[in-house]
């Protein structure tokens, strides 16, 4: 790897630290995110240098301080629950209180379905036009490990740029819950009013990782259905295994469209943060996440080196007939490939 930072990367860094409200900082942030997500070797090297620099600055800033002033909140829930509407209402209310809010989206399911639910349409127009908010137009996509890795890096870039609240919306289906829990400090599940019997099975996975459940659309004709749903979730959460001994998952109701109950939801989220911070659990969670991403990254890089290695490829081809006939087990074949890779780690 070359270790020279290009002048373009240097300019991105200068731009990032220019204060989040400036147009230069926003453009630099958007370009830095593109760089971090690029798969080109040259970009990957520059991305690594950029992130290292960002982390050095972070270290210098936090020298002597414990904890971190940023708060990363994950928002999951089925399509149509009102996540975008909620984030826009919450985001605007937070900027009015003096916060700088960044909104990211992740969509790990799109690597399977090939498309994104959101596409690249402009999202949350009011919030996106607010000088104290940054709304990333397209979701981070890719493999499970890749999405978590990139999202974490993008979070660091946003924080370097001065955003203190990071809202990560999970727009994909399926595995997104796991990813989101690996990326943020707290997970909020947003659900629409629904019949009680729908709760149990389908949402079990996400219920296990939710710190706060919010029933949205508690307005007009839907209000009483929302109340029933909230009670159902309270019962379900009482039966569920607790994620943290210090925290009893809470159920709230709101109307994102009317802007009602949003402050109450935010109060519970910050209460969670304060409770967890008091026992250093946010720091602990972040450090576990970093360690997990490190191993993920190593895993991905080793696999990509092994698959490109000429000796490994040759051995795989010569083993193919025996493997196809069942004369050698996949387990021993894999071991042979590993031995080849360890003997010839580099292509000559
Ligand atoms: P997402 O797919 O979870 O991001 O959901 P959206 O934010 O796009 O909202 C889906 C639909 O629900 C839209 O038609 C919204 O106008 C509507 N919606 C969102 N929040 C509320 C709410 O608080 N009350 C009502 N009645 N409708 C809402």
UniProtKB/TrEMBL annotation:
Checking InterPro entries in the record gives: GTPase_ArgK, P-loop_NTPase
Record GO cellular component, one term: cytoplasm
MF terms (GO), sorted A to Z: GTP binding; GTPase activity
PANTHER family registered for this protein in UniProt? METHYLMALONIC ACIDURIA TYPE A PROTEIN, MITOCHONDRIAL, METHYLMALONYL-COA MUTASE
User: Which family, according to the similarity comment?
Assistant: Belongs to the SIMIBI class G3E GTPase family. ArgK/MeaB subfamily.
From the Swiss-Prot or TrEMBL record, give the protein name: Methylmalonic aciduria type A protein, mitochondrial
Source species: Thraustotheca clavata
